[in-house]
Amino acid sequence: MAARSGYCFLGSAARNDSRDLGGGLAGLQWVVNAYTIAMAAIQLTAGALADRFGRRRLFLAAVVAFALASLACGVAPTVPALVAARVAQGLAGAAIFATTLALIGETYAGPARGTAFAVRGTTAGIAVVLGPVVGGLLTDALGWRWIFLLNLPVAAAALLIGWRSLPGRERLESGRRIDVAGPILWAAALVGLVYGLLSSATRGWTDPLVLGGLLSGVLLLGVFLFVESRLDAPMLDLRMFADRRFVGTQLGSFAVQAGIFGLLVYFSVYLQDHLGKSVIAAGLSFLPIVVPIMLAGAAVGPFLDRLPPRLTVGAALVLIGAGLLLMLGVTARTG
């Protein structure tokens, strides 16, 4: 839950920090994207670091770092300070996310492994979509800063359980080189693209800064791909994209993230600013997403090893697509 709690900020309580710190919608978008950019930039490298220094060791260190970053978010005096703390949260969250998958694979085997992955996915999904509800209650009662401060006891529990239960013996890849240029180029490309996309709403698509951001992002992305293709141990092995199953998995994951989680922040603004809902009411409006995730994850988990991925993933994406199509009719007066 801690690693995914960055998305909890996308809920109804998230809107209140921009009002409190004076950041507006643009500031809120950067508070959200600072986390995701940092997480996307370092996640693959975090996997390489885990192989070299130990998954258990990196996981525990990342939990501590995430707790400290959450504390910094909770006491941030300005939007830039909050964005910087969110970057630190994203870096730590990437390490947590990268190591938990490997730790589950090491700890469980057979059908139990499929169940463990399903439980992890369900927990992460619940944390994402339940975040707006919890955030709404916390914001209404204690203030938006407690959205981040709540991570401190969660991180303490994760640290205690991980220290006592995670396997201590691992095979380390001491000779593996770490790609430094990859995450830097990738993060710079994402910043350029995100800046251009976000600024276009206020500046227009022909604005020099917007065009400059988009162009620099595309150019840096090209440089990133060129550098990665020349390295012996790249952050991203481009040969993986020759596998159709790998490409399909990534496209499906992108569709879910963009189609569902990307909507949370905008629906939060819509529910409060256009429909006039309270913080708690806006958070409760996300409950129709929470219940299906809870039920589906628990029900499908034991059968993941028996069902063809084409069926499960395909059916899920069809349902998501149908839901998004129904949302095309939503306007400021829908209610």
Automatic annotation (TrEMBL):
Keyword annotations for this protein, in alphabetical order, are:
Membrane, Transmembrane, Transmembrane helix
Q: Membrane-spanning regions, if any?
A: 27-46, 58-77, 83-105, 117-138, 144-166, 178-197, 209-227, 247-267, 279-304, 311-332
Gene3D superfamilies named among the record's database cross-references? MFS general substrate transporter like domains, Multidrug resistance protein D
Q: Where is the Major facilitator superfamily (MFS) profile domain?
A: 1-335
- Matching InterPro entries, A to Z? MFS (IPR011701), MFS_dom (IPR020846), MFS_trans_sf (IPR036259), Sugar_transporter_CS (IPR005829)
Q: Which domain of life is it from?
A: Bacteria
Question: Could you tell me the membrane topology recorded for this protein?
Answer: Multi-pass membrane protein
Location(s) in or outside the cell: Cell membrane
Q: Does the keyword Ribosomal protein apply?
A: no
Q: Which PANTHER family match?
A: EXPORT PROTEIN (PTHR42718:SF49), MAJOR FACILITATOR SUPERFAMILY MULTIDRUG TRANSPORTER MFSC (PTHR42718)
Q: What is this protein called?
A: Major facilitator superfamily (MFS) profile domain-containing protein
**Species for this entry:** Dactylosporangium salmoneum
Highest classification ranks of the organism:
Bacteria, Bacillati, Actinomycetota, Actinomycetes, Micromonosporales
